[in-house]
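User: quick one
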Amino acid sequence: MPATNAAASRRRSGIPEATVARLPVYLRVLTALAESGTTTVSSEALAATAGVGSAKLRKDLSHLGSYGTRGVGYDVEYLVYQISRALGLTQHYSVVIVGVGNLGHALANYAGFATRGFRIAALVDADPRRVGEDINGLDVHHLDDLERLVKEHEASIGVIATPATSAQEVCDRLVACGVTSVLNFAPIVLAVPDSVDVRKVDLSIELQILAFHEQRKAAGATERPGSAVPDVVRGTVVAS
Amino acid sequence: MPATNAAASRRRSGIPEATVARLPVYLRVLTALAESGTTTVSSEALAATAGVGSAKLRKDLSHLGSYGTRGVGYDVEYLVYQISRALGLTQHYSVVIVGVGNLGHALANYAGFATRGFRIAALVDADPRRVGEDINGLDVHHLDDLERLVKEHEASIGVIATPATSAQEVCDRLVACGVTSVLNFAPIVLAVPDSVDVRKVDLSIELQILAFHEQRKAAGATERPGSAVPDVVRGTVVAS
DNA sequence: ATTTGTGAAGGGTTTCACAGCG
DNA sequence: CGCTGTGAAACCCTTCACAAAT
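Assistant: Done. Structure below.
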């Protein structure tokens, strides 16, 4: 699914795109382990809690360097640091969120942002009635101030949580004032220059993919009327 | 990201997982085209608006059958129907949403659900103060009634929009009462039987992936001090 | 004895380029 | 002539299995 230009990506960074997508999962599991006092973990154990195979985990980590000890495993804290560094989380990024509806509220209140070096620099909305509202300690500004806010806070990441109808226009403005990464929640395909990264989160698409698999399960069940609850069915766990 | 068991999947359905993930995008573009009165579209044009290459688009569609006309293109309405059928959207699915915080509200109000054959059968929350609240014409029920509601509405898809701490327990209960597909918004890796499909949407992970690419851009820029705004940079558009 | 790190094999996916059809 | 549909090549990713290290 994922990507475009994974080859070009790897040429520079050495880390395959598929690996990059899993590192944050490892990081989360490792952080939890560290908090529970665990100091060392094997690839087998870490892989199990992260929901992947141990060979895949080791290959992923091998792209960062040789940070394990044979016969022992990985030092939890050290791995946390190395993964953070590889992902660029030792730097801080300012994020601007455009659109403060239910979804924007959810994003503004999401604790996971701050804990990983992401600072919500500004909340912006087109509706004058929302301007001035306080969300999680942040003021809502008017869309007119978008350019000023982006430059003032040197925001490099923009989050689009607007209706689909305004998403492209907001995106264009973000890109025009220097944003180079966009996380898009609007159900629309954004057009951006090649120098800008876009990732999209699309609820409707996720549901449709699930529907596809549901359909297959149902078809399989009726093919074999004898087994009301088939005990060997393929299960699929998919990363977003 | 993507998948597990794509091989097993394809054995039954004939459609590769990577293709399944893109079909909903094509469907959305085609629906918009149909509404704007377009009756025919070429792979080139459709691919451009969907943000993919035309060869990829044609190969994707070829997995559904030969529904184009050489020298002409694809009939928009017919393609809409064929993709809908392939995805299983001609059936209707009942969805139960657990957790009615900001995110749950956003999901309950999302129009894209109903328009694709997904019916929100019930909203559920653990907080008694939310019970009885009316969201988008739907009552919020208490978590205690989860099993009853799932069975009553024959829901096969569950959406988890709870805090991470309760997500696994909610998931277990959903699976126990017959839900076979789960869309998880909680930042945690869910453990499920092989017969259950899980897809996850994780805001923090998306941001971390963007951070990785931001870091690379910054590194590239300092490597070549002469070019303040490099004009040939890799741009990456990634499907979620 | 145990667990990492990794070549090599095996699939899956994308891209190319063109044959085939309208 | 134009555009689809598709073998074949290229590429990426995963899995296997084991040598190397502690």
